[in-house]
Fold this sequence. Notes:
This protein is of the alpha+beta class. It has three domains: 9-174 and 394-561, TIM Barrel, CATH 3.20.20; 222-361, Jelly Rolls, CATH 2.60.120.260; 635-799, no CATH class. Helices cover 19% and strands 32% of the residues. It is built from 13 helices and 43 strands. Strands 26-27-28-29-32-33-43-39-40 form a nine-stranded antiparallel beta sheet, with helices on one face. An eight-stranded parallel beta sheet has the order 19-6-3-2-1-23-22-20. Strand 39 and strand 40 form a beta hairpin.
Amino acid sequence: MTDAGRIRLWATNLCFEACFPTKEEAERLAKRLASLGINCVRMHHMDNRHIWGKSPNKLTIDPEMLDKLDYLIYQLKLHGIYTNLNLHVSREFGPAEGFPAVEGLPNYDKGIDNFEPRMIEYQKKYARDLLTHVNPYTGTAYINEPAIAMVEINNENAAFDEYRKGAFDHLPEPYASQLRKLWNAWLKKKYGSDNALRKAWNAQRQPLGDEILKNRDFSGQWERVWNLQRDNLSEVVAEVIPNGFHGKPALRLRVIRNGQETWIPQLSQGGFSVQKGQVYTLRFWLKADKPGRIDVNCMMNHDPWQRLGLSADVQTSAEWKEYRLSFVADRDDPNARITFSQLRPGTYELADVSLRPGGVIGLEEGQSLADQTVPIVPARGPQMTAAARADFADFLWELERDYWWGMYRFLKEELKLKPLVAGTQLSYSPVHIQAGLDYIDSHAYWQHPVFPGRPWDPENWYVRNLALVNQPGGTLSGLASRRVEGLPFTVSEYNHPAPNEYAAEGFPMIAAFGAFQDWDGIFSFTYSHSRDYEPRKITGFFDIKSEVTKLVHMPACVAMFYRGDVQPATQAVVVGMTREKEQSILRETLNPWALTADRLGIPANLSLLHRVAMALKEPNDSVPPPTLSAEQKVFLSDTQQICWDVSQPGAGVFLVNSPKTKLVTGFPAGRTFNLNGIQIQIGETELGWATVSLTVIKGDGFDRPGRILLAATGKAQNTGWDFRKEGDRVTVGRRWGDEPILCEGVPARIVLPVSSSRVKVYALDEVGRRRDAVTVSGDDQAVVEIGPQYRTLWYEVEIQ
C-alpha cells in the first residue's frame, strides 16, 4: 500500500556486484530501469562477498561498498523505484568468522542457520548494521525509508527443505550434535523416558527371515538377474572380480560418463514382492575410489516407479564398509526392486548384497534420551516408524517457527523496521509459519538449467527447449496454488532461461496471469549479475539486460500487470489449509512442497479460469472445488480476457484480449486471431512460433486517437554461439557467442478497426525512435503488414 492506495510491483533483481555500481553507473541504470516500467529492484546475493569489500571477514560491512549501495537506492528512489532488501542469500561462514568445521555443510549454510545460535546472532548483527544505518543521500535509515518496500530474511532457505533433500543426514560436527541435542530435548519434553518413546514409536525388533534376492555374489551370468541400466550417453564398464571381497566375488563398476539422467547408470534387481507394514533389512558391502554418495532405493519395478519405503543416500569410502538399512514397506507391491544409482564417474565395488524380511525399526541398542543419542529421523536412510516421522515433522515445524518468528520479532520490535517482511519462499517452509509474517513470496522457472554432473558446471548443462504455451498451467498454475488468502503475494524470481528458443513468451504470460490472479508483485530474475549493465549480447541463462526479445514486450507487461489492463478474476476458489491439515500432510510427507492448493483438491488448471488460493482456516462458504475434464483443451478466464488454447496438438496459443492490450504468443498455425476487432495474423517463422503484443501507450483504445506500441518477436541468438540440440535439450556450453544479437523479423498482418487514412506506422530503432514509415493499406479498416524487411522488433502506430 502507498498513500494513494494499493500498488503492484513490476520488478526485477540485481545480483552480486550489480548491487554496487559507481555513481555514474547507478544514475544510468536507474534511468534505464524506469524507462522499462520497473518500479522495484530486489537486491540479491549482495551478502555473498561484495558488501564485505576489504573487511577481514564477513561480519563487518565495508563502508565504501555500503556507500555504493546507498547511492543506487537513492537513484532508484529518485526515479520512483522501490527496493527489496535481501538479508541472507549466499554468505557462508568459515574460519574467519569462527566456524572452522564447514566442510560438508549445505551451500550457504542453508537450514543450519535456522538453528545454529551464533549464525542466527550474526544474521541479526548484519540486519542491525544494514537497516539502522542512515543513507547519507536520502537522510533516512532503512528501517524508516519509504522507498524500501520490503525486506526478505533468508532466500530459499529453510530447515524443512534442507532436511527433505537429505542435507541433515550427514552433517559434520558440531552441527550434527547441535541438531541431535535439540531433537532429543524436544523428545524428552514430550515423552519423558525411553520406555514411553519406544511405546509411542512402535519400536520393533523382528528376526531376519529368508533371503529375497538372487545371485547375491554376482557369480556366473549375473546379468540374467541383475540389470545394469545404460543409455546412449552413459559409459560404464562392469566386471566381476572373483576374489574381490575377502575371497568372494565382487562387482566392479567403472563409471566413465553419466547418461541423460544423473541416475544412469543404475544397477537393480527386481521381481520380488513387499507387503505393507513389513520390516525389511537391506545389507551390502561397498567401497569406492573416492568419497562420495550414492542412492539406494526400494521402489516399484514398473510404472510409475514410486518408492516403497526405502530412499537412502549412503556415503562411500575407499575401504570396504558394511551398510545395513532397515525400512518398513509403505504399500503392497508384487513387483518391487532394489536399485543402486547416482553413480558419479569413478570406480565402485559391491559385494554380498542381501535383502531379508525383519530387522530393527525405532530405537536401537545404546540410543537413549538421557544420553541425547536418539538420532534424527533420516530423510534418505533407514526408514523409521510413522510415529517417529510424525514427531520429527512436528519438531522441524517448531524449530522453523521459532527461527522465522523470532527473526521477525527482532526486525519489527527491536529494530522497529517499517517495511514489509517475508521469511523465505513458500514451499521451502510450511504455509502457517510463513503466513505469520507480512507477505507470501514464491519462485518459479520454466525449464531451469539442468547440470547432469557438477553443479553449475558451465560446460555440462542443458535447458529443455519447450514452450510453456503447449503445457496449460505449467509453472503459472503451480505459483497460483501457493497463494494464501488475505496476504499479499509476490513472485520474486521468474524467468524462462536462455537459450530456450521460446523464452520471450514468459514475461507477457506471467504478467497477464498474475494480473488475473490479482498478485501483488512479479520480479524478473534477473536484470544483471554484474556491472556490465548494457552488453550487446545475451550473457547467460538469466540476465535480461540484453535479451531484446523479452525487453520489447515490457511495456505490454507493465500495462497488463501494473496499469491493470488485465482485470482480476470475478470468481475465487478458496480451499482451507488449516493448521491441522498442514500438520497431517507434513507428518505423512515431511515435505513442505506438498502444501499447495492443488494437493487439497483444487485442479491445477482451475487457476486458468478463476482465482485460486489457500485459506488458513476453512472458508465459511466452503464448497467442493469445480472439476475439470482431462480432455479440456481451451481455457477461457472468467473475465473473458485470457484464452489458453491447446486444441491443436503442439500448436498452443495464449491470447490476451483487453481494451488496451492485445497479446498473441504461441504457434499460430495459419490462424487469424480476432481480438475485439483487432485481427492478428502471423506469417511463417523459423520455429512456427512468435509473440506479438499491442499496447495502447497513449489514448483510450485501439479505435481512438493515440499511440500504440506493436512488438513482434521470434527466434533470437548471439552471433556464433555453439547451439547444440539433442531431442528437446539444448545447450551452448561455454560458447555463448558474441555481439550482435541476431533476431528474426516476424511477418504479421494487423487489422485495426479505424480508417487507414487515420493511421501512420513507423518502424522504431533500438532506442525507440521513429525510423522508417510502414505502409498502411485498406479503407474502413487499416491494414498494417510488418516483417523482416523493417529490421526491427517494434513499431509505433499513431491513430489520428
